[in-house]
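Summary for the steering committee. One of the milestones for this cycle was to obtain a three-dimensional model of the protein with MF3 bound, which we needed before selecting residues for the alanine scan. The sequence and ligand used are listed below.
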Amino acid sequence: MPVTIKNAAEAAKMRVAGRLAAEVLDMIGEHVAVGVSTDELNQRCHDFIVSRQQAVPAPLHYRGFPKSICTSINHVVCHGIPADKKLKNGDILNIDVTVRKDEFHGDTSRMFLVGDPSIRARRVCQISYECLHKGIELVKPGIRLGDIGHTIQQHAERNGFSVVRGYCGHGIGRAFHEEPNVLHYGAPGTGLEIQAGMTFTIEPMINVGKKETLLLPDGWTVITKDRSLSAQWEHTLLVTDNGYEILTESGAA
Ligand code: MF3
Ligand code: CO
Ligand code: CO
C-alpha cells in the first residue's frame, strides 16, 4: 500500500484520535507509582478508552497482542506486555498508547519515572525526549526521512547512547501501521521526500549500551541484548504546508 495523504476531513479525524491518545497518557501519569502493577495501569487505560472516550485500544488483539497498552520497563525496549509484577523504586517505564476513534489512529508514548531513578536512567529518558523533538522540528514538505533519522542518530550517539535499528516509526491513519517506515538513523538527503498531508510517527528507542535487541519467547517483548536501559518517546505528526502539527501533544503541560 502506498503512503496515504490525508485530506482535511481525514486530518480532522486524526486530530481527534491523537488528542484522545494523549489524554490517556495525561490520565495515567498520576497512577504510576512504586507497588503498582502494569496490569493495573493497563486496566485503567482500557476502561478510560472504552468507557470515557468511546474509542478502541488498538493494541488489543493486534496481531495477537494480549493487552490494551504496551508497558516497557528498564531494559525492555518496546512492546512490553502488562503483567502483575509491581513497579519498583528506580524503574523507568514507557507507556505506549494507541487509540482508534472514528476509523483513525493516534499513537503516542512517554517515559515515566518510578520513585527515584539513577542519573543514567534519567539521562536516557531526557536524551530520547530530545531526539524525538529534534526530529519533529525538521518536519516540513521537501525534507527527506533520512534527514530526520540522521539528526536523531547524531544526538543519541553524541551523548554516548545508541539507536535501536530493528523497530521504527511508521505512517498511520486508517491503519495502525502504514507506509512509510520512519527510521531513527540514516543519512541526510536520503529516503522518501515528505509531503503535506502525510501522517506518521517518530518514536526513537535509545539504549544506554549497544543497539542490539532480542525478542523474548513471548513473541512481543523486545529487550536490549546487553540488558542496558532503553528509553522511548513517541508522537503522531501531521505534515502541514509549512511545517508540522503534533497530533498527540499533551494537554496537561
Ligand atoms: N504502539 C506501538 C508503536 O508505536 C506498536 C505496538 S504493537 C502492539 O508502533 F501490538 F504491541 F501493540
Ligand atoms: Co508507533
Ligand atoms: Co506506539
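Key point for the committee: The mean pLDDT is 98.
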